[in-house]
Amino acid sequence: MKTRTLFILAAIAIPLVSCQKPANDNTPATPDYQEITFNVKAASVDGLDLGFSAGESISIFDGKANQKFTATSATAIKGTANAKAEAYAALYPYNAEYKRTSGKVSVTIPSAQSPDAGKIAANANFQVAYAASATEELKFSFMPAILKMNIAADKKIVSVTIFADGNESLTGTCNLELAATPKCEKVGEGANKVTITGTDIKGVNYAAVLPGNVSSYTVSLTAADDYHADVKVSGAELKSGAITDLGTFSSFNWVEPVNPNPTNVVGAVIMKASFETADFNLIGDGGFEDYPRDGWKWENSNHNESLIDGHNSPKALRMERTSPDGMTNLRQAVVYRETTEIGAGWWVIEFDARVSKDSNKDFYSGFSFNDDLGFWFREVTGGVKAPSPEDVKENGEWFFNDEQWHHYVFDDTNYPTQAWGFVHLGMWGDPNVNPCWSEYDNVVVYPKELDIRGISTAPKEAKILGSITNATYDQVDGLGKIVAWMDTDNKVKLAFSDVVINGTLIPTAVAETESTDPSSIQISKFYKSEGAISEILPVEEGEIAVVPDDVFVMDGKTYMHYYGMTDFDPNFTLNWKTDKSGFVVSEDNGKTWEAAAKTWAASAWAANNDGKFSNAAFVNRDGYTYMIGSHAGRDNWLWGKSYAARVADGKDVTDPDAYDYFKNPGWTDGGGEGAIRFNQHLLMGDRGTYDLIWNPKFEVYQLFYRADAAEGIVYRDSKGPDADGKWNWSGAKLLTKDEDTGVLGSISVLKVEEDGSVIFVGSIL
After folding, report:
1. d(CA 194, CA 505)
2. Which residues of 273-302 are buried (b: 16+ CB within 10 A; e: fewer)?
3. Which of 123, 271, 597, 667 is most exposed by smallest CB count within 10 Å?
4. 44-45 vs 406-410, strand pairing mode
5. How far apart are CA 451 and CA 280, in angstroms?
């Protein structure tokens, strides 16, 4: 009512002045709109700088519209407005959306403010003024209440959040009454907090809040290293345009942040696998019980193949020819050892088989060898080479076509310089002339001189223990890969590549946990620098990712192996392109990392023979750190190669030149990976990102990786290299199935328990 009275008085005054014009004044009538300049005086609260700068805009309400005026200096504003207005009301800062209704304008005091030191944040600096005429000075009043604090912290502070303990509204919507006596009135429910942010918040700082009564405050300070401290402050009445001093903060109890409602890390799973003693076998699950038949490779499609009830195992394989063309051949890649000993019977193949009647001479099985000189076969073949089963002696026949199961042994494999090749099962024959089928079970391949009994393992059980939980950000997901390890304090740490955190893609990150039990893992922090998540290693020009693939702790230091990826085709996993691989090293338990000076070679597509250790895994035992590696990517064809190297304790594990490289058999004396000839590899067949461990219960090395053909995680095991450098590895054994776990791209073993079972973290693709 008072405002309306002032408007009426102003309206009366204007015509009275105009009636006093001389009778001979011929000045035309003043138009409604014209350029007006107001003298202004910005608000001042106990010396707090709230002034305007030239170029800033202010809203002028002239009774008809919200007019935009611009400051020409700190004391004057200019714009166009209704010159016949009854009065003028001003609101700083200008907003075209503001509307004045019943003398009031609705504004929002924000919860997030970023003020310069000693100032109010621009998005919260609400000031109003009122003038009865265009010639009257606009004297502005600051409308929010003000909280003041003096911060003297021993850390770099990146945010300060002030909470109202009684859930009173500190920020939100208020109505500003634009009148000679202005008011700020809260509207609806607001937020009980206000946060100011910066790169290093120190000294005196201010926050704009709603007027009202607050019982008490909690002031929460967050440092650049992600630690936070809470300070309790008693409450008081908050008055519009007045400062409430919360005091000086100089003593803090810094603690780690914890999310009271932890979320699951999407894309990771914790699992446990157990094993039992088994005989050695160079090929993957020759019994066909579980390992998919794609672990073997078919030569052609002139057959039907199926799993049937086994001879003395759950499942066996049946092949039945459908065409007389070519041969039906099932093969699996293997690596042999070179030898110059003529007549040495290095390899044995044993199997159970039965063959259709009248097709016995079309049945064959044996070895194929590939070396520098060519391709060589040693095999059981109808009419050419006799097998040596025990029941041959009993029946006095070479082969059996009685459709009964018989056991065969073939051990005459003495070709010198043998290097690599495959074992195969198959047959010829014309199904239009005779029935033409064969069945195989319990196929076992091993070195002849090796006592295979009980020197390997078989998977017993694999089960999911749970998910990794996260007590930091709202959500962590979209993992490209995760690598886990136990640090020097026996706590779990995690390295991520291409991880999405709260919707933002982070190239690499390291997370800390308080978990000493790897079966229950919760992230308590991500390592940061200047308030942002620290990268393990910057992604360089031309790279699309930096991918960690293994971490181990030795002599108090943490070593992380990685490769820099330059090209990736998800539909072509045979090989991905890398520009280097190598180590980053941490001397502070994973908080910060330093790149090693030397790196291993780049890895191009499969035709490129370099980059043999782009993807690598490590284990320390018997005075050496052993490395098994391959080209980057997942090779899911017959001829994927894996290589080995070792470095003696006391030498630089990050230096490629410090390693001796496996040359099948034996080791080079340094020389880098270039010292390995093309056929001097350790393994062949499906391969992916490795993890390598020593299992003391079974006294075997175990090498874990993904095999797409097997649709799961597989592993191989080995007693390790002997004194002559001979290193025999079993065939792949199916550990986890995608149908049970989701598609695991890789795993990281965290712990080997006393019974030989392993606990590991898997990355879900």
Report:
1. 28
2. bebeebebbbbbbbbbebbbbebbbbeeeb
3. 597
4. unpaired
5. 8
Q: What is the pLDDT of residues 168-220, one digit of tens each?
A: 999 999 999 999 999 999 998 899 999 999 989 999 999 999 999 999 999 99
Q: Which pLDDT value is given to residue 378?
A: 73
Q: Token pair for residue 252?
A: 């803090």
pLDDT tens digit string along 225-269?
A: 778 889 999 998 999 999 999 999 998 888 766 677 889 999 999
Highest mean pLDDT among 153-167, 290-304, 332-346: 153-167
Q: Is the peptide bond before 665 cis (omega within 30 degrees of 0)?
A: yes
Mean pLDDT over 272-282 rounds to 96
Which residues lie below 8 Å from residue 466, measured CB to CB, with a gap of 6+? 269, 270, 519, 520
Amino acid at 436: C
Q: Show the tokens assigned to 488.
A: 């020097």
The DSSP string of 566-602 is EE--TT--S--EEEEEEEEEESSTTSS-EE-S--BPP
Nearest to 689 by CA among 765, 596, 600: 765
Cα gap 582→564, rounded to integer Å: 9
33-41 and 138-139 beta bridge pairing: parallel
Integer CA distances (angstroms), 504 to 266, 369, 471, 500, 501, in order: 14, 51, 17, 5, 5
**CB neighbours (10 Å) of residue 97?**
7
**CA-to-CA distance for 653 and 254, rounded, in angstroms?**
37
Cα separation, 363 vs 383, in Å, equals 10
Q: What is the mean pLDDT of residues 408-423?
A: 73
Residues in the chain, overall count: 765
In this structure, are residues 245 and 45 in contact, taking their beta carbons and an 8 Å threshold? no
β-strands 57-61, 66-73 pairing: antiparallel
Least reliable range by pLDDT among 252-256, 336-340, 362-366, 650-654: 336-340
Other Cβ atoms within 10 Å of 382 Cβ, number? 18
Q: CB neighbours of 497 closer than 8 A, spacing ≥ 6?
A: 479, 480, 481, 482, 507, 508, 545, 546, 547, 548
Question: Could you give the domains of the chain?
Answer: 2-22+33-249 (no CATH), 263-273+458-764 (2.115.10), 281-449 (2.60.120.260)
For Cα atoms 44, 49, 50, give the angle at the middle one, nearest 5 degrees.
Answer: 65
* DSSP bridge pairs for 41: 139
Model pLDDT, residue 256: 65
What is the side-by-side order of every strand in the sheet holding 193-197?
112-113, 193-197, 157-164, 216-223, 228-234
Distances, alpha carbon 62 to alpha carbons 126, 127, 194, in Å: 19, 17, 34
- Helix H or strand E encompassing 739: helix 738-741
DSSP for residue 83: T
Entry pTM: 0.71
Cβ-contact 654, 596 below 8 angstroms: yes
Q: Is 473 exposed, middle or buried (0-12, 13-18, 19+ CB in 10 A)?
A: middle
Which residues fall within 8 angstroms of residue 379, CB to CB, at 6 or more apart? 364, 365, 366, 367, 368, 385, 410, 424
φ/ψ (deg, to 5) at 225 = -85, 10
